[in-house]
Amino acid sequence: MKNKIYRIFTILILAAISVAYSFTQFTTPKEKLTAMDCTEAANTTAVSEFEPTIINKNSAPSQTPKGMVWIPGGEFSMGSNVEDESLCSIKGVTKDASPVHRVYVDGYFMDETEVTNEEYAKFVNATGYVTVAEQKPTQEEFPGVPAENLIAGSAVFSPTTAAVNLNDFIQWWSYVGGTDWKHPLGPESSIKGKEKYPVVQITYEDAAAYAKWAGKRLPTEAEWEFAARGGKTGNLYSWGNTLKPDGKFQANIYQGHFPVKDGDAGEDGFKGIAPTGQFKPNAFGLYDMAGNVWEWVNDWYSPSYYTELSKGGKIARNPQGPDAYDVPNDPEKKRVHRGGSFLCTDQYCTRYMVGTRGKGEIRSAANHLGFRCVKSL
Ligand SMILES: [Ca+2]
Ligand SMILES: [Ca+2]
Fold first, then answer.
1. How far is the CA of 343 from the centre of ligand 1 (A)?
2. Which residues does UniProt call coiled coil (predicted)?
3. What would the mean pLDDT of 165-188 be, rounded to a whole number?
């Protein structure tokens, strides 16, 4: 039975979650470290690799769609040269965000916040759309999985009862039947009263379907990062280079002992997910570009894409990501996630750093994964 369950995990969870946390190279969890300890060792960015951001001088369009802001576009240095998974120097695989390379993007509108439950409900009410997590998995998609295991559901963070080695994320993720965007923590949970919270348990196709209905689209990875950097150059975070300027958290992340039950101290004001827009926006007026929920972008994932783009030293103009997903020995098709989530801690998964990347299997979802949209002129 364990193997069968694992097969479900392999398809429905492993792909989506492992990637966001890139668990494979962890060896030395520093369980006693706190946010404060790690912050002391914060900035390992060699700013010299970043050349100044040049913001387009075009004037903002006269009309801005409600809930969006104008991002003027321009030229910037994209990526990260922080190769450790965490600020505590646990060696990891954020190397996929290097090398830092030069990119140009045209201007666009972007949602100020992550798409909320209220907004997603409007889409579902208007169209009758059924998300992937609400659909019973089919034998065609999961050959070899016994029929009794093919139940509609999704991945839910399930804290451990005691400290664990951080090398196996299945210890703190569960596949829970009856989980979907309206029941993000399992069938007994609900989004009642959570209209302004980001919608979660959303797969790539669920996000893309919403965007199409709204007359928008998902951002490219380059558009997402240009926007997140807020016109600044080479910063570690979307707000600057210090995790807690003046001692104040700037994003909804996780403080304390990950992934233990009641381990999140909530020093930033939130244990777990928060309503959108609870922290200061970045310089472009965008909220939660770090933390709260991971956000789908449109690009297929490739760990070598930045290396390819940087070849020849040319400026990549409006890069759209690789033509297809093609990663050796990893058949689960993945697109990029950005920004980290409320589960990211400086012990583990510091992907709230603005240049770093996550990724997820396109038909997988979780309770820390949502999206926001953009719109071209
Ligand atoms: Ca928090
Ligand atoms: Ca976010």
1. 8
2. none
3. 90
Q: How far is the CA of 22 from the centre of ligand 1 (A)?
A: 21
Query: What domains lie within the chain, and their CATH numbers?
Result: 35-131+194-376 (3.90.1580.10)
| CA 175 / ligand 2 centre spacing (Å) | 23
Q: Which residue has the tokens 């972007």?
A: 110
Pairing of strands 316-317, 334-338: unpaired
pLDDT at 330: 86
Cα–ligand 1 centroid distance for 12 (angstroms)? 26
Residue whose pair of structure tokens reads 């045209």 in the numeric block: 106
pTM for the model: 0.89
Instruction: Return the SS3 of 360.
Output: strand
Lowest mean pLDDT among 98-112, 193-207, 226-240, 317-331: 317-331
> How wide is the angle at C-alpha 10 spanned by C-alphas 358 and 17, nearest 5°?
25
Least confident of 2-16, 63-77, 117-131: 2-16
Q: What separation in Å is there between the alpha carbon of 112 and the centre of ligand 1?
A: 20
